[in-house]
Every structure is written in structure tokens, then in C-alpha cells.
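User: I'll paste a sequence; please echo it back and then give the predicted structure.

Assistant: Echoing your sequence first, then the prediction.
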Amino acid sequence: MLWKKDVLFCDLNPVTYAISESKEKLKRYIKDYLGKDVFAKGQTRKRLRVVVSEHSNHLIKKGKGIDPVLQENKAVNIDIASKKINGIVIRPGETFSFWRTVGKITKRKGYKDGRIISANKLTPGLGGGLCNLANTIHLLVIHSPLTVTEFHTHSDALAPDEGARVPMSAGTSVCYNYIDFRFKNTTNYPFQLCVWCEDGELKGELRSSVQFPWTYEIDEQDHHFAKEDDKYFRISKIYKVTKDRETGELVDRTLIRDNHSEVMFDYDLIPNELIRE
């Protein structure tokens, strides 16, 4: 067998991929065991009184090239995982970990095949769609004073926008357990993460015991699509904007994503007015 220098070990065949994935999972276990992070665990039905941020989106995507069965399965997967997270309290100094809260994805727990991204292609996979849940949580967190400590991206153009463009409406990647989404409560007050499914919607709230003196916005600049060789990409720069709650004055403006995402849906559905040569 000839060894191709430009091919990664994990890409040689399914066996080498499984070996590489097991290695990454083991590295995560060791890192967490030796690390100093204190992970949030406690859940309660009692809600903290102040809604810091909220977001909702449709569970089922419809359109050309979208498999309705995988969409229905995605909704099932998100509902199962949301129940593991709903009501969790992140106390000062604690870190929230998506995978330490949700746990391992198995058929015995009721998870089904949904859409996942593998080798930069949309394909069926167990637990598919949980990136949607992680992304909703990410949107809640970036509209708050909490600090994102681990974030991985995939394409921010999985499907056509439904209505007005919502920056960061997709793009958070998670894969048990080594590709995680984590944030830390660096404030002096507890926060609570609430996520649930209702009437075909994934709903999310980030709550706290106090109202903070700042408001948060996401500002997307230079949003467009461009063709590179034979592929289209969504391109933009996305900023987190912090303002004084009382005066509205700018406190901080930080670039959080230099977006260059391959379009994963039918190119005919790209709005013509957003395409640049």
C-alpha cells in the first residue's frame, strides 16, 4: 500500500478514522480530568427572574433537497437533548459543557439519524441536528456577559434563510465529546439556561438573578455570496456589540466571526441580489 503524504491518517479508511476519533475522545477525558474547570451540573424547574437573552427557531426546515425524514428525526434528537439541559444553573466560576451535560448519543436513548456534516458533505448520522441546539445556546450566550471558552464552526449556509437574515443562525459544530461547545460564568451572579421544544419551535432563554447594565447586539457587515472556482460561499464579518443599557452608548465592538462558509444548499436558492462576481 502506497502512503500518500497529503492524506491524513484519519482519512485513509473507516478503521483509521475510528482510531483517530477514539484518540481524540481519550485526550478530552484526560484533559478534563487534569483540568481545573468546575462544570455546571445542577438543574431546577424554578426559573431565575431576569431574561438576559432569548431566541427561537423552526425545528423543521423545508425546501428543495431537504430530506423531511431527517428533519423529523432532528426534531426528536433536539427534544431529547434539550431535556438534559433545560433549567441547568451555571454558578459564578462554573463552566457549561454541551457534551458533559447531554452525554453520549446512543440509539438506546432514542436518538435517530439526522443531518450531520462529514467530509464537508451533508449526510445522515446518529444524533444529527444537535448542532442546531448548540447554535441556539451559542446565540443566547453571545447576547450576554458570559465568556465562550470553546467554539467550533461549520458552514453558516446549511439552508436558505427563512425570512430576514439572522447572523450566527447556524455554524456551531459539536461532535461527542471532543468537539464541544463551552462557556464560563465569569460574573458574580448565577445564570440559568432554559431550552425546550414547543409547537414546532426550539425555544431558548438565558436567565440570571439580576439585570446587567449592558445590552448586546450582533452586527453583520458586508454580507454576500461569491463563487470561488465551482463553489459558492457566504461571506461576511460578524461583530458582537455591547452598549450601555441606560445611555445606549457603545461600550465594546468585537469581531467574533470572519465568515467564509461553503453553501450547502441548492445554489438556485441563493438570492441573486446578494451574489457578487
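The two ends are 44 Å apart (CA to CA). The chain has a mean pLDDT of 90.
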